[in-house]
TrEMBL record:
UniProt family annotation: Belongs to the multicopper oxidase family.
Enzyme class: oxidoreductase
PROSITE patterns found in the cross-reference section: MULTICOPPER_OXIDASE1, MULTICOPPER_OXIDASE2, TAT
Protein name as annotated: Multicopper oxidase CueO
Enzyme Commission number(s): 1.16.3.4
Coiled-coil segments: none
CDD domains, A to Z: CuRO_3_CueO_FtsP
Entry-linked Pfam families: Cu-oxidase, Cu-oxidase_2, Cu-oxidase_3
Substrates-to-products reaction catalysed: 4 Cu(+) + O2 + 4 H(+) = 4 Cu(2+) + 2 H2O
Keyword Oxidoreductase listed: yes
Alphabetical keyword list: Metal-binding, Oxidoreductase
Residues annotated as domain Plastocyanin-like: 78-189, 247-308, 371-490
Organism this protein belongs to: Streptomyces kunmingensis
Keyword Lipid metabolism: no
Length: 497
C-alpha cells in the first residue's frame, strides 16, 4: 500500500511504472512561506496594465471524423508560448496549443471519442469534470498518459442532460502544477431541453474561463504549493482584459478554473442579472441576482442585458470576495471590463421556466465525510476522514444503483475547502442545517464549497457504471496534499441484475 510520503520520496523509482517519465512532484512550500511577500524577482502585479487586451473567445474544436453515433477528436498536449501579459510571452501547458484550452461542443446521447497524445515533459491524466463516464475514461489519478508521445483514447457517452463541463489534468501530486500551468479545456454539452429555449446564442453565448496567476520577473508562471500570492486575474487567458458587447442580452458561462481562488462576481454598477444555471446545467427557473459566488471547479450560467446602457458605457466585472488585509484590492477586485457598443437585434428570451429537475428518490444510506488539513505549517498534509489519499485503498463501497446522503464537514478552523465527486451530479439538501431552496445550489451540482467549520448535506444516485472513482477537495493544491479518497461502485451478489 503506497502512502503519500512514499510517492513523494520515490519518484525516480516509479519511472518505469509510468512510461519513462517519472512521477514529477512540484517543490512544496510551507503555508507560512506561501504567505510571505512576493520574492524580489516576482513581477509586480500593479505593473500589468488593465483593460488593454481584448478577451478572446475560446475556439471550438472540430471533429476529425463523424459517424452516425460518434464524433471523434484528436488532441495533443504540448507547451507553447502565450501572450497572457501585454507584450510578453509565457510558457504554458495546453491542449492543442490553445490557452485557455479549446471547446468541445457535444450533444446528449451522442458519443464523443477523444484521442489524447502527450507531448509534455510530465505525465497526464485527463478528467472530464462533471461527466458521467466509465472508469476507463474518467482520468483517474494514476491512469496516466506517458510523456514522449504516449496516447490514450477517452470515450464520453454523454448519457446525461446538458451541462457546462470542463476537462483538466488529474495526475496525482502533479495536477496542481499542471492545471496551474494551463492544461484545461471546456466541454459544452447540450440537449433538446436546452435547445428548445430561446436563450442568447451564437456569438452572444460566451464561455469565460476565470483563474488567477503569479508571474516572475521574466513573465513566466511562478508556482509553489498553497501560494496565496497569485494576484493577477485572468479571463480566457488574458490578464484583466476587456470585452466589447452590443447593447443586447448575452449569455456568459462562467468557469472557475483556479487552483485555490474563490470569486464573488458582480457588475461594478451593482445592477442585477439573471442566474440561469450551475454545474449540472440549467436551474428550474431563472433568478435575478446581483452577484454570484464560485469556488474552484464550480460553474455559473448567467444572462446580462446590456440594452439598458448607452453606447460607450464601460462596466467592470468585479470580484468582491473578502480579501486578506494585505491583498492588492486594485488587482483582485477587478476581473474584466465590458465595453458597450451600439444596439443589435435581439430576439432571445429567458423564459420563466427553464427545465424540470427529477424528483429526489428515497435515500437508503447516510455517510459522513470530514475534510481536514494541517494548518500549523509544520507539514503539507491533508486528509479525508483522517487519512491521506492512498491509490490502493478503497475508502467507500457503494452499492450500484443506491441513493445516498453524504454529510460533508470542513473540520479546518481557518482554511476553506470544497468537495467534488466524480461520476455523479448531486443535489445539495442542506447547508449549515438549513434546507437549500434557491441559488446555484438549487440545481444539479458536482462541486460544493465549505467555509471553515461548515457542513453541507448532499444526495446522489450511483448508477450507470461500476468501478472505482474519487472524491476530493477541488482546491487542487489540497487534493495534491492528500485530500482525496477512492469510492467503488459495484453490484453485490444480491443485486446482480
Amino acid at each position: 500500500m503506497m502512502q503519500r510520503r512514499t510517492v513523494l520520496l520515490s519518484g525516480a523509482a516509479l519511472t518505469g511504472a509510468i512510461g519513462g517519465a517519472g512521477l514529477l512532484v512540484p517543490a512544496l512550500s510551507s503555508p507560512a512561506e506561501a504567505t510571505d511577500p512576493p520574492a524580489a524577482g516576482d513581477l509586480d502585479p500593479a505593473s500589468v496594465p488593465q483593460f488593454q487586451q481584448a478577451m478572446p473567445v475560446p475556439g471550438t474544436l472540430r471533429p476529425t471524423a463523424v459517424s452516425g453515433t460518434t464524433d471523434y477528436y484528436a488532441m495533443t498536449m504540448k507547451e507553447v508560448d502565450a501572450e497572457i501579459l501585454p507584450g510578453r510571452k509565457t510558457l504554458v501547458r495546453t491542449f492543442d496549443g490553445s490557452f485557455p484550452g479549446p471547446v468541445i461542443k457535444a450533444v446528449s446521447g451522442r458519443r464523443v471519442v477523444v484521442r489524447q497524445t502527450n507531448r509534455l515533459t510530465v505525465p497526464a491524466s485527463v478528467h472530464l469534470h462533471g461527466a458521467h463516464v466509465p472508469q476507463s475514461s474518467d482520468g483517474s489519478p494514476m491512469d496516466l498518459v506517458a510523456t514522449g508521445g504516449g496516447t490514450k483514447t477517452y470515450t464520453y457517452p454523454n448519457s446525461q442532460p446538458h451541462a457546462n463541463l470542463w476537462f483538466h489534468d488529474h495526475t496525482h501530486h502533479q495536477e496542481s502544477e499542471t492545471v496551474y500551468r494551463g492544461l484545461t479545456g471546456l466541454y459544452l454539452l447540450t440537449d433538446a431541453t436546452e435547445q428548445r429555449l430561446n436563450l442568447p446564442s451564437g456569438s452572444y453565448d460566451v464561455p469565460i474561463s476565470l483563474r488567477d496567476a503569479r508571474f516572475d520577473a521574466d513573465g513566466q508562471l511562478a508556482y509553489s504549493m498553497g501560494d496565496v500570492k497569485r494576484t493577477v486575474l485572468l479571463a480566457n487567458g488574458k490578464a484583466w482584459p476587456y470585452f466589447e458587447v452590443a447593447a443586447r442580452k448575452y449569455r456568459f458561462r462562467l468557469f472557475n478554473t483556479s487552483n485555490m481562488r474563490f470569486f464573488v462576481l458582480k457588475l461594478s454598477d451593482s445592477s442585477p442579472f439573471q442566474l440561469i444555471g450551475s454545474d449540472g446545467g440549467l436551474l428550474e427557473k431563472p433568478l435575478e441576482v446581483d452577484s454570484v459566488a464560485l469556488s474552484p471547479g464550480e460553474r455559473a450560467d448567467i444572462v446580462v442585458d446590456f440594452s439598458r446602457y448607452a453606447a460607450g458605457t464601460t462596466l467592470v466585472l468585479d470580484n468582491t470576495r473578502p480579501l486578506r488585509p494585505d491583498d492588492p484590492v486594485e488587482q483582485l477586485g477587478k476581473v474584466l471590463q465590458f465595453r458597450v457598443g451600439g444596439p443589435a437585434a435581439d430576439t432571445s428570451t429567458v423564459p420563466a421556466t427553464l427545465r424540470t429537475l427529477p424528483a429526489l428518490p428515497a435515500a437508503t444510506v447516510d455517510r459522513s465525510i470530514e475534510l481536514s488539513m494541517d494548518e500549523t505549517g509544520a507539514t503539507q498534509d491533508a486528509y479525508i476522514n483522517g487519512r491521506p489519499y492512498d491509490m490502493d485503498r478503497v475508502d467507500t463501497e457503494v452499492e450500484y444503483g443506491a441513493t445516498e446522503i453524504w454529510t460533508v464537514h470542513n473540520a479546518s478552523t481557518r482554511m476553506p475547502h470544497n468537495f467534488h465527486i466524480h461520476l455523479v451530479q448531486f443535489r445539495v439538501l442542506e447547508r449549515g442545517g438549513r434546507p437549500v431552496t434557491s441559488g446555484l445550489e438549487s440545481g444539479l451540482k458536482d462541486t460544493v464549497p465549505l467555509q471553515p467549520g461548515e457542513t453541507v448535506k448532499i444526495q446522489a444516485t450511483f448508477t450507470g457504471y461500476e468501478g472505482t472513482y474519487v472524491y476530493h477537495c477541488h482546491m487542487f493544491d489540497h487534493a495534491a496534499m492528500g485530500m482525496m479518497a477512492n469510492f467503488r461502485v459495484r453490484r453485490t451478489r444480491g443485486n446482480a441484475g
